[in-house]
Amino acid sequence: MNNKLVYEITDFSLENEELLVNETLFHNANGYLGVRSNFEEGYPEQFQSIRGSYINGFYDLAEMKQAEKLYGFVEEKQTMVNVADTQGIKLRIDQELFSMFEGEVLKSSRTLDMEKGVTKRTILWRSPKGHEVEIIVTRMASFVLLPLFTIQYDVTAMNFSGDLQFLSSHIGNVQNYFNPDDPRVAGESFRHIHVEKVEERDGVSLIRSRTSASGLQVATAVQHHLSKEGEIKHHIYGDSIEWDLKTSIELNETVSLSKYTIFADSIREENPSAHALQLMEEATAEPIETWYQKQEQFLANYWDHASVEIDGDEELSKAMYYNLYQLLQSAGKDRFSNVAAKGLSGEGYEGHYFWDTEMYIQPFFLLTQPEMAKSLIQYRYNILDSAREHARIMGHTKGALYPWRTISGKECSGYYPSGSAQYHINGDIAYSVINYYLVTKDLDFIAKYGAEMIFETARLWLDAGHFYQGQFMIHDVTGPDEYTCVVNNNYYTNALAQYHLQWAVKFYQLLQANGQTAVLEKIQLLPKEIEEFSKAAEQMYLPYDADLDINPQDDSFLSKRVWDLEKTPKDQFPLLLHYHPLYLYRHQVCKQADTVLAHFIVEDAQSLRTIENSFHYYEKITTHDSSLSTCIFSIMAAKLKEYEKAYDYFGESAKLDLFNTHKNTKDGIHTANMGGNYMAIVYGFAGLRIKESGYHFSPFLPDKWTGYQFKVHYEDSVIKVKVNSGSCQFTLVSGREKTIHVYGQAYQLEEQLSLSLEGK
Q: What pTM value is reported for the model?
């Protein structure tokens, strides 16, 4: 077993806060379903738990109260729903109920095996009467059969023989977590799901529920297999079913209970209950060991493409593997879902999808699993009509404006200055489509899906912006930095809009040249509009200060008072939880990379000197209160050859969740930051840039490492990049030869290319 693919904690704390964090860190998910890692037997009553099971893209509607009911304000939002609780298993040994909080825990550990795709709880427990048992609980969310979640509960009698009883629950009456003091989670309690039917069919419990307002249905089916003969009964209690499984156990014998759960929903299936029962037959037709084997085979292929090997820092290497595994667990696998800010690990940000996917997560999948990147883009295409509708609500007569945060396609941002005003979401999505084309050259996909998104969102810029004194300007928008809202000519927004409009013209020409013009007719795109796109791009206003030789974040940014970060007490961070938004807006202080991010993704828009000056300017006034920030500063420090600084920023980012550095991991992982870790190595340390001329690399090796390596897809080829203390090697693993650029020089990669390493 690869030790880097195992994350384990031993003799873990039973403090409530640490248990909540571990519920997140050891959750099971596969992109369709996610189950938090709660103790099967539960906690004492005084303990808090966020006990949840979620389906990606499955939502209810909730009222969003507005004090001022102005036109276009969002008054209803979608929210991810806690759908059912099938985790519960209580164990009795000769009438003694197992609990981590009673008797004596002799040994304990929690393990995530990323090679096998399972989590394990291992406990050696002595009951109050002296009975000793080893308990191993193995949980899996299948990557092969996405609706399948399993729990295998193994009990070994260490010093006795006696009676054994499992009480396994299937609970339909569940609620979502809320915290009125934290804007990053739901602020009030609401019953989002109601049980419609509870039944038992030939050893399978089935609960069908419906959401309160969205009217969506979900079905959960549960079935058990006991490893030895025993008595099995079920009892229906209102909205729940409890299974009572009794048997005996001999000294040194191991008895196993396998619990299968199938999730099904009405977004994807016309009859979720029938579908759940059908899949349960499929799941239980195979022994659970077969599903473990399939899981391991799936992951062997995944790691072959996705792994990033770091030599010289075992702890950091393990953190990187953990992050890449969580990306796989989080990403939606169909056109109905995307990647929530917390993946499927918790209820932070209510399961909403943001720009995180396009700018931080999709780059990883694009380079390692291009089909996954395509699926994520198809979700955006699937909600294009909603984006058109949103544009009309926002006053635009043409084009599409994607919502800032959403699940089904409608805007869920109640505070428009840092929500709907972030028009750069259009540019972010366009950027992801452009990058998909540059990596795959899949013009057919562009013709069928991507171009329509590109053109409709490009139309929006022409209406949102205007020409003034020979320049194209975009007023009253918010950039990535949410500590500076509703400004004129945010540099990031304008630079990305320029890039977007340039590519809208290029795609138009490509489609014309290849006779793939159906989309032009579908949306009635006129040549005159293409001319306007070109003119707006050419005359785009990009803020610039000649005295400082930097790009101001917006027209008014440099005229504001600079926030004194050094004198701000540490307990006042993150600032958003301690200062009124208007107070923040009046200062030069950044929550995250904004102009610095623009210099990464459209670096050719400015000189290296201006980029360097901007980096150092914003570095002094950025709090990194957003988890999306330090990875970008790492990438840009690497570009500027400030290698030690690049490494320090990367280290802060890589361990964010495992060390709970933002103190909110209990609400879910920081999925985009995890994608940012990958970017920090591939785009930062290896210096990859994806351009029309091909792949450009500029590798360096951090002083604390002895080497690193990874693979990237490029059109029909796979290229392995290996960096060590003396050289950088590029190997064509499969596919046709490619032209790549290393340190500014073009090379034809036929088999292997080895060059001396520049930089430390």
A: 0.96
